[in-house]
């Protein structure tokens, strides 16, 4: 398994991986109409968004790949809250790689042991437990989004 910085050419593979990862992580946790809309959006638009994210000079995206292709990714950037603290914007691993330590490796690659924050979907026990094991805790901030309630977790 290799973890490396994403390059713009990875956008073609990241877009469908992102769709699959959402289906695997969120089916039953968020309204099905949200997942259906995510899946039905034209793939070309998703690829273009990924190209932009990878090229964004203020953020970073790392990918995990094995012999079969991309199996996970993580993206970070300056916190959208203006605090100057790094925000973990996305961390996804294919279900086939759950429990193999890949999420841990991606997280450590992207943020190390430093301070960071993230938003997690309320009720996503698997993700919440993962982040708690990595020193994150809820700070009481919530956002009501179409996907459901998002709760902020921070690590100092």
From TrEMBL:
The keyword Transferase applies. SUPFAM superfamilies: Acyl-CoA N-acyltransferases (Nat). Residues 1-156 form the N-acetyltransferase domain. InterPro entries: Acyl_CoA_acyltransferase (IPR016181), Bact_Acetyltransf (IPR050832), GNAT_dom (IPR000182). The lineage of its organism: Bacteria, Bacillati, Actinomycetota, Actinomycetes, Propionibacteriales. Keywords: Acyltransferase, Transferase. PROSITE patterns: GNAT. This is GNAT family N-acetyltransferase. It holds the Pfam family Acetyltransf_1.
């Amino acid at each position: 398994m290799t973890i490396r910085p994403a390059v713009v050419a990875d956008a073609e593979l990241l877009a469908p991986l992102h769709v699959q990862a959402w289906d695997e992580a969120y089916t039953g946790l968020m309204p099905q109409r949200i997942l259906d809309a995510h899946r039905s959006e034209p793939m070309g638009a998703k690829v273009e968004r990924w190209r932009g994210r990878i090229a964004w000079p203020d953020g970073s995206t790392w990918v995990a790949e094995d012999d079969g292709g991309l199996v996970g990714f993580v993206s970070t950037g300056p916190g959208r809250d203006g605090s100057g603290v790094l925000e973990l914007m996305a961390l996804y691993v294919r279900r086939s790689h759950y429990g193999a330590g890949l999420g841990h490796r991606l997280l450590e690659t992207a943020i190390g042991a430093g301070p960071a924050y993230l938003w997690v979907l309320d009720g996503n026990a698997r993700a919440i437990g993962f982040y708690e094991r990595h020193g994150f805790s809820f700070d009481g901030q919530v956002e009501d989004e179409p996907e459901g309630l998002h709760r902020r977790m921070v690590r100092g």
